[in-house]
Write a structure and sequence with these properties.
single chain; 205 residues; alpha/beta; Rossmann fold; 2 domains; globular
Length: 205
């Protein structure tokens, strides 16, 4: 794999980053971002990020959602954990709706941090590096999903047409995007179309 996987901690307080580095000195590298701008720069320039811990009250507001949305838009396979000093049901709901992997209230004790990383990082590593196949936004170790991954790896490099079936919300578009990102056309645009939203005559033409 080469370089160590990186955990990005976006927080005005450096203690969280230092604590993580002490917990995983030999296996992970911890990158600290004190501002939203620094966090976005790290996401753009650092290729080995496998987990992001972001304080909701970054820059004194709710800027913690900014790195979260950047990850969801550009590097969706990375788990993002939102942290905060005050428990808020509304903030928790909003974070989960926006795609946060978890929502934690400070202070986060070392045992909680260790458990979090041990649970989140293997999924992130699997998503980004197993067989060089990128399956953004979907994490699973179940045998059924592993069989889906194997099929996707086989068909992605081909010119076959692929029919993806499933109920609403099961990840059909994510699957299509993964196929595109691993195909020979990955440098071209990916254009999902909601056929159900088109008029019958327009769809036919």
């Amino acid at each position: 794999m080469g370089k160590k996987p990186v955990i990005l901690v976006a927080d005005e307080d450096r203690r969280q980053a230092e604590q993580l580095q002490e917990l995983f000195p030999d296996t992970l590298r911890v990158l600290w971002a004190q501002t939203t701008r620094q966090a976005l720069d790290a996401l753009q320039n650092e290729g080995n990020i496998c987990l992001v811990l972001c304080d909701l009250n970054l820059n004194g507001g709710t800027d913690g959602f900014v790195p979260l949305e950047a990850v969801r838009a550009r590097r969706a396979g990375i788990p993002v954990v939102i942290t905060t000093s005050s428990a808020s049901i509304d903030a928790c709901k909003q974070a989960m709706r926006r795609g946060a992997w978890d929502f934690l209230v400070k202070p986060i004790v070392p045992e909680q941090l260790r458990a979090l990383v041990e649970q989140a990082v293997p999924d992130a590593l699997q998503t980004r590096w197993v067989d060089d196949f990128v399956f953004p936004g979907v994490h699973s170790r179940s045998p059924l999903m592993q069989s889906v991954y194997r099929i996707l790896r086989r068909v992605a490099p081909t010119d076959l047409s692929v029919l993806i079936e499933g109920e609403s919300g099961t990840g059909k578009e994510l699957t299509a995007r993964a196929l595109h990102e691993n195909s020979r056309r990955k440098d071209g645009p990916f254009c999902p179309i909601n056929c159900a939203g088109l008029a019958e005559t327009l769809l036919e033409s």
